[in-house]
Amino acid sequence: MRSYASQSRVIAIDGPAASGKSSVARKLARQLGFIYVNSGAIYRAITWHLLQNRIGSDEEERISEALDSVALACVVRDSEARIVVDDVDAAEHLRDDRVNECVSRVSKLPRVREIVSEKLHDCAEGHDVVIEGRDIGSVVFPDTPYKFYIDASPEVRLQRRAAQGERDEITIRDHDDVSRAVSPLVKAKDAHLIDTSQVTVEQVVTQIMLRLEQAGLPIGDVQMINRAIGE
Ligand code: CDP
């Protein structure tokens, strides 16, 4: 794996499906003027591309070939990283039922994880970022001092996903994500745990901001600088 020298600040927000990561990470990024990056969207875009090409999640060799030939780019637009696959913005396909069903099987492949990790480091090159995912604090950016693990009870998470109107077997995905050999979903030892079952997104963001200040991130200065440069 590549090693990277970057001066950017990285805030890692990890946790299981429907724990509230996306809402929290997006709002936090907006408040700080950081770029919001959803690493799951990259795994989803790859999965969508493989499905389009009728490549099964167990066909490792064909997956490798497909990854060698696809142009995968993270493009920053409106302070968010968008995933572009062979010049197509994949956003509208990322939550398809078939993608929900297959994404965890695709995500367990080391080659896939390596490519996504590279893309995430590319996104953080020259940008302060809030990145949400499963292994951001534990594996992709282990040296960042800003790590959070967002969780909620299984009942609350199931309710939240159902309320979004998606067909998504999150229990199966969580099991696959926790039990895979490479970069499983795990709370990094130095990550701050927040249970979002009973609290609002705003309350979680406030908690994180306080924690970031305690960890040495000068929140007021960061917001002022980012406003000044128009982020
Ligand atoms: O939004 P939700 O939490 O349901 O899922 P997501 O963040 O879009 O991630 C979709 C899937 O991508 C996860 O179930 C994992 O299998 C995989 N993933 C991963 O392996 N590592 C990450 N850093 C992010 C996502």
Task: Provide an overview of this structure.
This protein is an alpha/beta fold. Helices cover 48% and strands 16% of the residues. The longest helix has 15 residues. The N terminus is likely disordered.
Short descriptors:
disordered N terminus; 3-stranded antiparallel sheet; alpha/beta; 16% strand; binds cytidine-5'-diphosphate
Task: Give the structure's gist in a few sentences.
The protein is of the alpha/beta class. Helices cover 48% and strands 16% of the residues.
Strand and helix layout:
Elements: E1 10-14, H1 21-32, E2 35-38, H2 39-52, H3 60-69, E3 72-77, E4 80-85, E5 88-89, H4 97-107, H5 110-124, E6 129-133, H6 136-140, E7 146-151, H7 154-163, H8 170-179, E8 192-195, H9 201-214, H10 219-228
Parallel strand pairs: 1-6, 1-7, 2-6, 7-8
Antiparallel strand pairs: 3-4, 4-5
The structure holds cytidine-5'-diphosphate (CDP).
Residues 17-18, 21-22, 39-40, 43-44, 103-104, 107, 133-136, 173, 177 line the site of cytidine-5'-diphosphate.
The ordered string of helix (H) and strand (E) elements is EHEHHEEEHHEHEHHEHH
As a percent range, the share of strand residues is 15-25%
Unreliable spans are 1-6
| Class inferred from helices and paired strands | alpha/beta
Helix content bin: 40-55%
Number of strands: 8
Shape: globular
Give the names of the bound compounds: cytidine-5'-diphosphate
Please state the CA-atom Rg, rounded to the nearest Å.
17 Å
Q: What is the strand arrangement across the widest sheet? A: 2-6-1-7-8
Our measurement of the CA-to-CA distance between the termini, rounded to an integer number of angstroms, reads: 31 Å
Major sheet size, sense and barrel closure: 5 strands, parallel
* Average residue-wise pLDDT: 92
Q: Quaternary status of these chains?
A: single chain
Distinct helical segment count = 10
